[in-house]
Amino acid sequence: MTYKKYVEKMKEKSTNSAPEEIVKIFRQAAKELKDKNLEDQALKVGDKLPSFSLKNAYGEMVHIEDILKEGPIIINFYRGSWCPYCNLELRLYQKLLPKIKELGANIIAISPDLEKYSFTMQERNQFGFEVLSDINHEVSKQFGLVFTVDQKLIPIYQKMGIDLSKYQGNTAFELPFPATYVVNQEGIITLAFVDSAYELRLEPTKALDALKKIKGVKDDSSH
Fold first, then answer.
1. b/e per residue, 80-102, with b = 16+ CB within 10 A?
2. pLDDT tens, 130-140?
3. Pairwise CA distance, residues 144 & 200, whole Å
4. Which residues touch 60 (CB under 8 Å, ≥6 apart)?
5. Which distant-in-sequence residues (6+ apart) come within 8 Å of 48 by Cβ?
6. pLDDT (tens digit per residue) in 17-74
7. How far apart are CA 6 and CA 93, in angstroms?
């Protein structure tokens, strides 16, 4: 099943359970965010990948240059371990991991979560790829992905059990746009997907297709 199909089912359930007033607030905040066109600031196809190092779920420093030495990379920015859409998306990447590895490529997932929550994310889902903590959004800001959460959403998040200050270790109330980048071994972005609508994501199979294109592998349409 595709990411889109899974999300359609999730939205049916959430729409049925969430009060209409809350749904309206989320829709209005989403529209206001979209109208700012902040995605236009994000890195795009043809841009050079910035140099960065982040700690993984086990407290080890991971350098992007070391991963690039092995081959192309899918870089996925997600909002946090609390986000059901992010969990779904990354589980679909986990299913594709054998095909990603066959191409000599890697995937890394980056969020503003503290390391202990990245550890929970990694262990709960048994991910076979690096889950990195971007404390204070240092790397997300280099990619042009960070925005400030609408004030009226913060108490709603908290009522839902989502305390961003707890997960991130700060009170900035910022989040990254969920984003997916495919980068070739020279560090050049060959595919970029960024959207302020948090439920909209690139189909993971599209990222796999982009890796195949980099490697010169013909698509067998098996997915």
1. bbbbebbbebbebbbebeeebee
2. 999 999 999 99
3. 18
4. none
5. 187, 188, 189
6. 678 888 899 999 999 999 999 999 999 999 999 999 999 999 999 999 999 999 999 9
7. 14
